[in-house]
Amino acid sequence: MDTIIITTISSPWLLCFLALVFSHGLVQLQASHHVYRNLQTSENTPPNQPYRTSYHFQPPQNWINGILNRPMVYKGLYHLFYQYNPKGAVWGNIVWAHSTSKDLVNWTPHDPAIFPSQESDINGCWSGSATILPNGKPVILYTGINPQNQQVQNYAEPKNLSDPFLREWVKLPHNPVMAPTQANQINASSFRDPTTAWLGPDKRWRVIIGSKKNRRGLAILYRSKDFVYWVKAKHPLHSGKGTGMWECPDFFPVSVDGQVGVATSVIDNKVKHVLKYSLDDTKHDYYTIGTYNFALDKYIPDKGFVDSYSGLRYDYGKFYASKTFFDDIKNRRILWGWVNESSSVNDDIKKGWSGVQAIPRTIWLDKYGKQLIQWPIPEIEKLRLNMVNLSNKLLKGGSKLQISNVQALQADVEVSFKVSGFEKAEKLDPSWTDPQMLCSRKGASVKGGLGPFGLYVLASKGLEEYTAVFFRIFKSNEKYVVLMCSDQSRSSLNEDNDKTTYGAFLNVDPVYETLSLRTLIDHSIVESFGGKGKACITARVYPTLAIGYGANLFAFNNGNQDVQITSLKAWNMKKAMIY
Known about the structure:
By secondary structure, the chain is mainly beta. The protein folds into 2 domains: 64-376, 5 Propeller (Tachylectin-2, Chain A), CATH 2.115.10; 384-573, Exo-inulinase, domain 1 (Jelly Rolls). 5% of the residues lie in helices and 43% in strands. It has 4 helices and 39 strands. The strands form 7 sheets. Strands 28, 30, 31, 32, 33, 34 and 38 form a 7-stranded mixed beta sheet that branches. Strands 1, 2, 3, 4, 5 and 23 form a 6-stranded mixed beta sheet that branches. The model is unreliable at 1-25 and 27-43 (pLDDT under 50). It catalyses: Hydrolysis of terminal non-reducing beta-D-fructofuranoside residues in beta-D-fructofuranosides. Residues 1-23 form the signal peptide.
């Protein structure tokens, strides 16, 4: 086939389109790889890089923003597509960068999969998702920005299905396949991020796209018989009053019978459904759990779940624009999320990069159906070295314990605490409903009854700098409430950084359960999982003293009551092979 580039709508284009109505043909795009090839090395990264991660995914330099482009599995390889600026460390010039992996830990880069080349995406190739069709062919639906700066949805598929690396993609010549019009009354500036599609029992495909109408967030629903021609439904799958724009929606089933993942098109009485959206106003990811009524094509959240800023979140720190995918190799659902910087734009430009990906997490429904559980994929444990093992250590009130023989810059730490003396728990004021505000008010340096106790990570020897991840226990009526905090207020002497403190209430009964904490430390990122994955908090920090050999790790207790460390295990982490 001759190479064709479509850049304008003209009479020849219309003739081509009419022919393609019957053929569903694809136009081979000019590869343009002489423009986009190896742009990850277009600028030199400064040599002194104390904040570059070692086992979190990030390209050698420049800006990334998120797993907006859904990962997938094809011919035994994991494919990661992500938004990338090949020309600098700030947002702009966005293409779909592409890497592959056999284990979700070590990654090999390829040329960008999708880049502006058609009228329907000439001003930008934004986010989207991949869907594997029943014949095994992957298809990508993605948001493009047209010459009128409208957000429209486009179709692309691999040029060569025999290539397991899927190194070249082609687009429909009559893109877009979904677009705002006067008739459908879609907001042309708020119509983006198509999900992975699901196939209904009626053999029609469905996909949702994030949008808003005034202040109401929308999951706009489209249907298709052939994945090429799409028809907008009369009503959205779901909407939320007063929430603003719903970015990067995600809709998927979870099993009610344990941790096994299920494919996206499964609809039966053995699953619940999850609707997740990223709120543009708050830059946080929220979700509800509920029922998908296929007959009505409506999603109904279960009682107790709310579409609001106070709803459940995947992560209560820096974690946004996340997507899940079903891993049919290991029958699990995996969650990816983007972790942006807390440093200033000027500092990002100086270091030559911005943004990393969180460690992939396995995600499943808890046994009561009230929330999702998240845990780092077990593959990451292959990087563990030289375990330090402590048990039954008493941590007296006002004390700290240095954890030696651990590379504190690059570590995986699991610790469990046993608490007693509950009569010393501070009373929870009924007005203390915002965990982040409460953690800010009662940080790691504020003494309490039961807590704060936990870990000082990326800490300088004299504690001039540290990030504290900890628990604090309150009394509320006849029960106890556990607060989990990640306190960045003293993480760096550099005052140009965002040092916001994060917090979450943890659904654990400390009377009958030990309090567990797992923290992944990687130079400038701290990912923490409380209560075996019931609450997650991710932070970005940039110490000036606690770098290199100046970084330390401590367990601490700043409460009045002693606590018992029942178990503490810490590992050095090897560097992953990420190119």
